[in-house]
Amino acid sequence: MRIGIGYDLHKLTADRKLIIGGVEIPHTKGLLGHTDADVLIHAVIDALLGATGQGDIGTQFPDNDQKWKNADSMKLLEIIYKNNIKGKGFKITNIDSTIIAEEPKLKPYVSDMKKKISHILEFTDISQINIKSKTNEGMDSTGQKNAIAAWAVVLVS
After folding, report:
1. Whole-number Å distance between alpha carbons of 84 and 1
2. 4 has which bridge partners?
3. Nearest CA-CA partner of 133 in 15, 5, 21, 11
4. DSSP output for 7-65
């Protein structure tokens, strides 16, 4: 068994869609980044790569490579799963994750996020993925509604 942890944070900005966990969420701002800036998926990818000793998302998908400009993070997760996890004989036991955002409220979207991620990762039981949403009580960049962050922990065998 191996464990990995992942973290990501992106600044909120106007004129971008807000996509978290592969789900487009109605909001006045979206996340700024080279790809679609899906903080949850980026944290999951980093956790998977960390657990298997394969670097991080920036190593796999450099932000100076135009090939990945505005990329769908769910496609990046699929690539990592097929090539770096399943393709190298690893099996994901479970994922536990936390999204930190003052707004919008994410609870209504968690079920869809879990379904999308479970589908890509070929989970037989949706309980293999847990997604929590928290606030930072008005403190720091996430608490002041300037950014959204995510943490993920994975267990692989």
Report:
1. 16
2. 154
3. 21
4. EEEEEEETTS-EEETTEEE--S-EE-SSS---HHHHHHHHHHHHHTT---HHHHS-TT-
Q: Alpha-carbon distance 154 to 143, whole Å?
A: 26
Whose structure tokens read 């990995």? Answer: 4
All structural domains of the chain: 2-156 (3.30.1330.50)
pLDDT, one tens digit for every residue, the chain (157 residues): 999 999 999 999 999 999 999 999 999 999 999 999 999 999 999 999 999 999 999 999 988 988 889 999 999 999 999 999 999 999 999 999 999 999 999 999 999 999 999 999 999 999 999 999 999 999 999 999 999 999 999 999 9
Contacts of 31 (CB under 8 A, 6+ apart): 10, 11, 12, 13, 16, 18, 19, 20, 37, 38, 39, 148
Structure tokens at 89: 């004989």
Round to whole Å and give the CA distance between 110 and 25. 11
